[in-house]
Amino acid sequence: MRYLSTVIGGAICGALCFGIWPEMWKSYGIMGGWLTAAIVISISWYMNHWIGVMRNPQGKLWVDQGWAVAAAGMAWSVVRFHTQIRQALPVVCCCLLGGGLAGVAAARVKKHLQPAPGTKAEERADG
Amino acid sequence: MVDFLSHYIGWLGMPPVSVLTTVFGAFAVTFAVIVCWSRLVKDFGPIGGMMAAGFIIGTFWVLNHKLPGFGIHPEGLPHPDGGIKQFGLIYQGFRGAAPWVDMGTAIGFGLWVCGLAEAPREERMRLAAESLPRIGAAIAGGVLGGVLAGLVGWTGANLFGY
After folding, report:
1. What ipTM was assigned to the predicted interfaces of this complex?
2. What is the rounded CA–CA span in Å between residue A66 and residue A50?
3. Residue B94 in contact with residue A69, Cβ under 8 Å?
4. Domain that holds residue B143
5. Mind listing the pLDDT tens digit for each residue in B80-114?
6. What b/e sequence results for A58-90 when a residue is b if at least 16 CB atoms lie within 10 Å of its CB, and e otherwise?
7. What residues 43-82 of chain A have any CB closer than 8 A to a CB of chain B?
8. Residues B7 and B81 occupy one common structural domain
9. What predicted TM-score, i.e. pTM, was given to this entire model?
10. Which of A30, A61, A95 is facing B26, going by the closest CB pair?
11. Pair B23, B91 in one domain
12. Spatial distance between the Cα atoms of A106 and B32, rounded to a whole number of angstroms
């Protein structure tokens, strides 16, 4: 039961992304895709991570709704277009490689970030 | 060199050049999300997070996932010159016939790895073990939502000839 809210939040986020994104892209092209990110990801981020429907206890590793979107993309195309999961594996490996490198790089970079002078971030001790 | 890089490799499902573009696309969006998103939330509160959704995810969606012509098409869209062309950095494997690989894969994994890299070395195993069930729940939720969203294709409805 403790994970039920994570499952529900992931399901809503995944269904929103792949129910809406392709249709918006077909209808409005590039701007439709951009707009979909603004309306779909913003509201699902607000629900999952600002209100906290996806469980992310303090001081623990962050579980992002990106996991749900990734899983939903695969499940959606398998169910709707009868694709084969194993064919996606090379690209998944490349994505994980790129994402992992970015995670390590960002962890290094974040230690040395300087806020721009006069910004609100500078006033906080933790930056 | 150009020939080798752009030549489609059957078992890999993509030309080698697409490995480079996919890794770079995944790196770029993940780095931007990790570095900018939390900072935007700090500076602007929930509005900052909603701005980040548009400005980070939306903009990197154009970079990573745009396709030629209109429509996300699992077969890919045929190019007038022959063959299937993709312009997004994250390649959709087997000329687009493979299941959709979203940049969410990279973002979720990247945030997880970033958390691991920032944690003290001796706590990493414990943190990773604690997070695995939550990741499993997120993936299960995504599968549930994706399957249900995909089922609309089974209704056989033919609205407006589409």
Report:
1. 0.89
2. 15
3. no
4. 119-151
5. 655 556 778 998 888 777 899 999 999 999 999 99
6. eeebbbbbbbbbbbbbbbbbbbbbebeeebbeb
7. 43, 45-46, 49-50, 54-56, 60-81
8. yes
9. 0.88
10. A95
11. yes
12. 9
